[in-house]
Amino acid sequence: MAATTHAEHEEIARSKQDGEALTWEDLTKMKLTWRVAQETLRMVPPIFGSFRRALEDIEFDGYVIPKGWQVFWVASVTHMDGSIFHEPARFEPSRFENKSSSPATAPPCSFVAFGGGPRICPGIEFARIETLVMMHHLVRQFRWKLCCKEDTFARDPMPTPLHGLPIEIEQKTSP
Ligand code: HEM
To answer: Tens digits of per-residue pLDDT, 114-129?
Structure first.
């Protein structure tokens, strides 16, 4: 198992000819990269929540949600619950080891960046492919660094870095 995302992508690239396209099998090897992406989605879920309607009376945490009421579920509240994700404010991709979409020990619907249940995002696999392919080329072809300390964001409602996240980017001469 590669120790860094960089090593993971270099290893995949070594098995390919120059310019040869990535395959599905290559994507399955990007395990660390996907954990990094999942941890990012956990800490800053692009879709912060959505609505559901109670199909029957539900008791939750001492409150009764009557049948027919609309409920707003919020991803960040679940993702920052310390009883599900130990030290939730810490960026720790290894918490996604052992399982592809949610921590091994967590209850169902703990990682809800893509929602959950019958209306779960049908674009998960496509989003995963786009993320991994983009990361592969970004990591292999460029060096970049942050121009200023940027550690917070605002929602409108998508999360946007407060200062625009300027970076200095440089193309590597030989990837
Ligand atoms: C990182 C990328 C993405 C994230 C974080 C994301 C997240 C979500 C979330 C949270 C929902 C609501 C699910 C629920 O209510 O349980 C959703 C629904 C949906 N997503 Fe995505 N999504 C992503 C990418 C995509 C892509 C690439 C596509 C299509 C190619 C897509 C198509 C849809 C559709 C059609 C729905 C509505 C499903 C329904 O209501 O039955 N999404 N997505």
So the answer is: 999 999 999 999 999 9
Task: Give distance in angstroms: CA of 23 to centre of ligand 1.
Answer: 24
- The superfamily in CATH containing domain 5-141 is Cytochrome P450 (1.10.630.10)
Interacting residues of 157 by C-beta distance below 8 A, sequence separation 6+: 48
At 100 the pLDDT is 44
Q: What is the rounded distance in angstroms from the CA atom of residue 30 to the CA atom of residue 138?
A: 14
Task: Tell me if the pTM is above 0.85.
Answer: yes
The residue whose CA is least distant from atom 20 of ligand 1 is 121
pLDDT in tens, 139-155: 999 998 999 887 788 99
* C-alpha of residue 121 to centroid of ligand 1, in Å: 4
Which mutation among 39, 51, 111, 121 tests ligand 1's pocket best, with the greatest number of atoms within 8 A of CB?
121
Residues with Cβ within 8 Å of residue 153, at least 6 apart in sequence: 44, 159, 160, 161, 162
The residues, ordered by sequence, that sit 6+ positions from 3 with a Cβ below 8 Å of its Cβ are none
SS3 119: helix
Cβ of 119 closer than 6 Å to ligand 1, yes or no, is yes
User: CA separation (Å) from 79 to 2, 28, 37, 75, 174?
Assistant: 26, 25, 14, 6, 39
